[in-house]
């Protein structure tokens, strides 16, 4: 079996596994970077009407502002993780952060739709480098209870950012202009870059060879995943049963099949075959895909319902999601404490059951729904459940990953996050649209109900996946099982 040589990387902190307490400065810097990446998944959605009016973009062209970002970020994460394992983690992180910040500034300066789409694509590609490097810095810097706490916070950021993006996007678009949803990244990115330059220790690596990067594998997986995201994003306009969708999905399957064939023959595979046997990572990625899809799809349907059916403004919609974001925080705190007594399987499955119940509750909201009575209880239940899932998934997936593979494992996990985001909106909006049009008041009300019934079914299905596949042992019991 092909193996990746493990001598390329020294640990970022040489004694990361020696039980010593590490300062939280590295976590603070990496979380700041991840906040920027996750926010940009959803922050643009609220501003799309303003951007379209300002740049003269048609409705179908506006979708590219979201699709271009998710295509490049989701498609490039495995390569970004591999680059991170072969080069300096500190250097890769700072480079990705600098490029993401510059691309954000360029997005705000765009004068045409084409310029903005190109800048969003650059943001996505930068995120594909930045995200796995940030997560691998956490896993190689911290150990034991510190690592568990750090990964729990990482999971919280992954879910909170999507919900908070609605509020941030609505507030900035209403009170300033759409450009500021991108420019707000600049000061945060600059501060994180300066802080990272000071707190991240330099790591020594051997100079890799060109063949170590597995360019054929990288090209096929980027093409395959990007095609998949592109097709999923287009289902809202073209439908699931169109020739375009069928051909696109077929092409994605061929490209991803080619990637797997390339990996089996590669001397230095992009994704080592033995990593597929890390059950906690693979199962965690599958559940990550499902819960992210439910989260992003629920925010999408909820935003349409509040604005189209209930007549909320963008800002009011964002404020309405604030308790949802706070509930996610409560769920992550609860999950972290529960993991001391229960297995990741039990905590994740319980959270998904709660998500299913909350989604069913939301599906009964009438067209004249009152926020406090008809929406708030379901949003809180949904938020707590989502928070309970992200933490055990993040903690269990990265537990036991050798430092030499931390980057590619991080890239694999976050690929599930990105693909899940695209898949959730595509599936739930498609199911919702079978009940009525999302652009009319009556149609959106019926679509909202059917969409959340589908979200409940998805949650129940992934609860079964969690029960059958995720680790059954408590994290403390598995603490000594790290691979080397």
From TrEMBL:
Pfam families: MFS_1
Domain Major facilitator superfamily (MFS) profile: 26-474
SUPFAM superfamilies, per database record: MFS general substrate transporter (SSF103473)
Keywords of the record: Cell membrane, Membrane, Transmembrane, Transmembrane helix, Transport
Membrane topology: Multi-pass membrane protein
Cellular component terms per the entry's GO annotation: plasma membrane
Transmembrane segments: 24-42, 62-80, 92-110, 122-144, 151-174, 180-201, 213-233, 239-261, 281-306, 318-339, 346-363, 375-395, 407-432, 452-472
Molecular function terms from GO: transmembrane transporter activity
Protein name: MFS transporter
Organism (species): Nocardioides donggukensis
